[in-house]
Amino acid sequence: MIAFQFVTAFLMIFMGLYAFLYKRNLIKLILALNLVDAGIHLLLISLGYRLENGLLPTAPIYTGYETLKGTPMVGPIPQALVLTSIVIGVCVLSLAMALTVNAYQQYETLDVSKLRRLRG
Amino acid sequence: MKTTFGALSLIFILGVLLVVANPNYGLKFGLGEGNWEEYRYTDQYYIEHGVEEVGGTNIVTDIVFDYRGYDTLGEATVLFTSIAGAVALLRKWRGEE
Amino acid sequence: MRPQNSDMGLIVKTMARATIPLIGIFGAYVIVHGHITPGGGFQGGATIAGAGVLFLVAFGLSEAKEKINKNFYSVLEGIGGLVFLTAGMLGLGVVFFYNVLWHKGPVFNGEAGTLLSAGYLPIMNLAVGLKVYTGLVSALFAIALFRRWKK
């Protein structure tokens, strides 16, 4: 685990939370959702990092060039689950964009506070 | 005033979380307590046995498609459903030609 | 409203003609070698979908509609999902998602690290790559074809 990535992940998550609380534009809200998503991914990936007996780890892939036997590898489970999570993020992004386009076509505005009225 | 206070409180919560959630010197809970890195034997098992059990030298692909295959199946389902929903929301509706 | 013939200028079109095959070849390489080098089905599929985005942006919607059939892509996405499920069911005699091709299969059981190894992993990589590519391209076309604006 690296301190720089840890701090950066929490900064990204809280930038997204700030945008959630104080922005009214739907597009900006979707961007904030993706920012929180990316922050969580960075946090999980950085938790997979490990440093064993002073050696820098490599990616969890055997390429045939591992001459040093004791070289540690970073944890593969966070990478696999983050890969799944990225696909889910893309799905949520596409569905949210479709809903936003429909809302703009119905209300002719992107302001969240003006989306209250029901309109046929 | 209210906005400034809210932003300041967000920064305060960020600082508290940065200290508390850090596994090195934050709160200790769960099985691992202090030496939580010793309890990550699942990673080590996959790294050591992945090539002979699944066959791919890319351990991440081994996990995604074999050890955690149900996750990938659910992910494929979610991808299909969300793309179908987006296409259904964006195409021409009936009686709107 | 927006003009119907909304393609880019000559420089962008020439660059797109040069780079779209290269992007496609790189994505296919990432998909096919997914089990021995970094990459995999999703990454390669997203790379090829980037080539589709470049095609749509550079040549405009009217020419892209002639080249890319949206319904055919939707069918291909379903086929990708079915191939993935079938590859998971191959080892159903033992357990679901059992890698029977790698342990005692006729094909894809070479030495670990070569291209024809790792059992059903290459099949699943191809299926997921096809699924992601066609899904992203059809979602993009659905957004681009949206024509219900009020005048």
- Radius of gyration of chain C from the CA trace? 19 Å
Q: Secondary-structure element order of chain A, as H and E?
A: HHH
Q: Number of domains in the coordinates of chain C?
A: 1
Structural domain count of chain A: 1
| Helical residues, percent of chain C | 55-70%
Beta-strand portion of chain A reads under 5%
- The total of beta strands of chain A comes to 0
CATH fold-level label of chain A: Helix Hairpins
- How confident overall, as mean pLDDT of chain A? 82
- Supply the number of helical segments of chain A: 3
Beta percentage of chain C is under 5%
Q: Which architecture of chain A does the CATH hierarchy give at level 2?
A: Orthogonal Bundle
What structural class is derived from the secondary structure elements of chain A? Answer: mainly alpha
List keywords for this structure.
heterotrimer, A: about 120 residues, mainly alpha, Helix Hairpins, about 60% helix, B: about 100 residues, about 65% helix, flat
Give an account of the 3D structure.
- Chain A has 120 residues and is mainly alpha-helical.
- Chain A contains 3 helices and no strands.
- The radius of gyration of chain A is 20 Å and the shape is elongated.
- Chain B has 97 residues and is mainly α.
- Chain B has 4 helices and no strands.
- The relative contact order of chain B is 0.05.
- The mean pLDDT of chain C is 82.
- Chain C has 5 helices and no strands.
- Chain C is mainly α.
- The chains are: A mainly alpha (120), B mainly alpha (97), C mainly alpha (151).
- Chains A and B meet through helix 1 and helix 3 of A and helix 1, helix 2, helix 3 and helix 4 of B.
